[in-house]
Structures are given as C-alpha cells and as structure tokens.
C-alpha cells in the first residue's frame, strides 16, 4: 500500500508541478514587481517541486540512475559541444532570418507576468535572469524527462511515454499560442530522443541551455 502511495505521489507531482507553475501566466500580463525580485521568485517556484521529488526519491533509497541522472554515454565534452552548437545555430537563426526575428525573437519580448518574467533590460538584471534560466531548464528536464518519463515508461511503455509527455509539455505551453506550442513539441520530441539515445537527461539540459543562451544574447545585443 505504501509503495502504491509513493508511486501515485510521484506521478501526481510530476504532472501537477508544471501546471501549477504556468497556470497564471495566461492571465497576468503585467507586474509592478522589480525584475530581479521576480526572477528570484520564479527561481524558488521552479526549484521547490524538483527538490521535493528528489528528496522523496532519496528517502525511498532508490538509485538516481533510474531517473537518468547518471553520466550517460555522453561525457562533459560532448555536452558542451551540443550546447555550443545549439547556441550558435539558434543565434544565427534568430538574428539573421526573418522567421527567427518574427517567430523566435519576437515572443521573447512578450514576457511580462509573474510566471514568465520579462527579459533583462540592463546588465544588473543578467545574473538573476541567468540563474532563472538554469533553474527552469533543470526543473523542466527533471520533471518531464526524469520523474514523469520513468513512471510513464515503466507502466505504459516507451511510445506511450513519449506521446503523453509531449502532450503534457505542449499543454503547459498553450498560453503562448500556436508558435509556443510548436516550439514546445519540437523541444519535447528532441529531448526525448536524446534521453533514449544517451540514457540520461543531461543532453536535453545542454540543448535547452544552448537555446536559452542564444535567445538571451540576441535580446541583449539589441540594447
């Protein structure tokens, strides 16, 4: 009975966490909170759920390797290469193509709510925003490609796990409109493939960090 409760806890937390984080972003389109304060608020929001899940997992004396938190088949050099390649490619796409300007860079400026704080507008805001981007990236991969993936794959199989995880991820981005949902689908599918190929979540983390670095750099270059 206790084991069944533990399984239910992880499944519900993995599904509920992103929904709770995103839920008010659709309606709160402005905030008077200073950007750095809003960044810190969101760092806390993004780290609480994964921290609870990891603590619970550790208390059950389960190995973290089951969650794809081991090194995997890619070493640090490969992860840096993946992140750098994504960053350079995405930056070129964002800054040198009309599609990138309209579909990728444009929505980056439309971030002004409690749960999607705006991009930095001055150098003093960059450190706080960088910490937020790191927290959001790691939290994303832990929730979707670690905990949620483990239980979906265990009970439903690989194909169903991929499809359901993508559906939940895309649904959590619905407030960003069709373009945001399309980006979420591509990211979820790509990172799921990387998880299957590498056996760990870190390649997905590298991809997300590369994309976020390119987007932030493109925004800062407009100052």
Which secondary structure elements does this structure contain, and how are they paired or packed?
Layout: H1 2-22, H2 35-59, H3 76-96, H4 98-108, H5 126-156, H6 158-172, H7 177-198, H8 202-220
Helix pairs in contact: 1-2, 1-5, 2-5, 3-4, 3-8, 5-6, 5-8, 6-7, 7-8
General description of the model:
- With 223 residues, the protein is mainly alpha-helical.
- 74% of the residues lie in helices and 0% in strands.
- The chain contains eight helices and no strands.
- α1 (2-22) packs across α5 and α2 (35-59) packs parallel to α5.
- The model is unreliable at 23-28 (pLDDT under 50).
In short:
The protein is 74% helix and 0% strand. The chain is mostly helical. The radius of gyration is 17 Å and the shape is globular.
């Amino acid at each position: 009975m206790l084991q069944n409760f533990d399984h239910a806890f992880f499944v519900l937390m993995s599904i509920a966490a992103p929904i709770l984080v995103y839920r008010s972003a659709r309606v709160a389109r402005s905030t008077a909170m200073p950007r750095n304060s809003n960044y810190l608020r969101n760092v806390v929001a993004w780290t609480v759920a994964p921290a609870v899940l990891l603590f619970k997992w550790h208390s059950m004396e389960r190995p973290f390797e089951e969650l794809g938190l081991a090194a995997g088949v890619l070493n640090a050099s490969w992860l840096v290469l993946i992140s750098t390649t994504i960053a350079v490619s995405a930056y070129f796409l964002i800054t040198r193509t009309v599609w990138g300007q309209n579909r990728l860079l444009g929505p980056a400026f439309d971030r002004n709510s409690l749960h999607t704080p705006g991009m930095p507008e001055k150098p003093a805001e960059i450190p706080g925003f960088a910490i937020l981007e790191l927290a959001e990236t790691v939290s994303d991969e832990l929730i979707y490609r670690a905990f949620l993936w483990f239980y979906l794959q265990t009970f439903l199989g690989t194909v169903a796990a991929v499809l359901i995880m993508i559906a939940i991820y895309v649904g959590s981005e619905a407030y960003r409109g069709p373009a945001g949902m399309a980006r979420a689908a591509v990211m979820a599918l790509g990172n799921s493939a990387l998880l299957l190929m590498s056996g760990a979540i870190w390649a997905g983390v590298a991809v997300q960090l590369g994309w976020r670095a390119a987007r932030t750099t493109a925004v800062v270059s407009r100052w």
